[in-house]
Specification:
The protein is of the alpha+beta class and 146 residues long. The chain contains three helices and five strands, in the order βαααββββ. 21% of the residues lie in helices and 35% in strands. The N and C termini lie close together (8 Å).
């Protein structure tokens, strides 16, 4: 059965996330990030940052509010009972720091079949309050059985 690709190109409303210093610290502790720039504003400023710096994979936190609705969209039609996490790829830009407001938009980038599996590829683009891209993510989910 051919997969419906008519949804490719659909974009979702932007999601804003206000980055808090404590959220960065909590995340840094959770992933074992001990560099003082993730915990101490003075250490971050000493290294040239405006505030405490989010570890790179904090991108998942501020992107989730945009990527989630895209993945869960019934129009996309993912069969969650048969879904596997395929991959996440990120290209980082401007570092994210506490007090930034990050706006993320997500688009269905591709849907295709290969080897009795359907691949659902989403692209998210996150920008800070100054319009600088902070990360571009590619999120791939695979549904077994086509």
């Amino acid at each position: 059965m051919a997969v419906d690709t008519s949804i490719i190109g659909k974009s979702y409303p932007p999601h804003q996330y206000e980055v808090g210093r404590e959220k960065i610290r909590e995340y840094a502790y959770a992933v074992g990030e001990s560099d003082p720039v993730h915990h101490d504003p003075a250490a971050a400023r000493e290294k040239g940052f405006r505030n405490v710096v989010a570890p790179p994979m904090f991108a998942v936190v501020y992107s989730a509010g945009s990527v989630g609705p895209a993945v869960l969209d019934p129009e996309v039609g993912i069969n969650f009972a048969m879904m596997l996490h395929g991959s996440q790829e990120f290209v980082w830009g401007e570092p994210v720091v506490a007090s930034d407001t990050i706006t993320t938009t997500t688009t269905v980038k591709d849907i295709f079949e290969k080897d009795d599996k359907t691949f659902y590829v989403f692209e998210s683009v996150s920008e800070n309050q100054d319009g600088q891209e902070v990360v571009r993510g590619t999120w791939t989910n695979i549904v077994r059985g086509g």
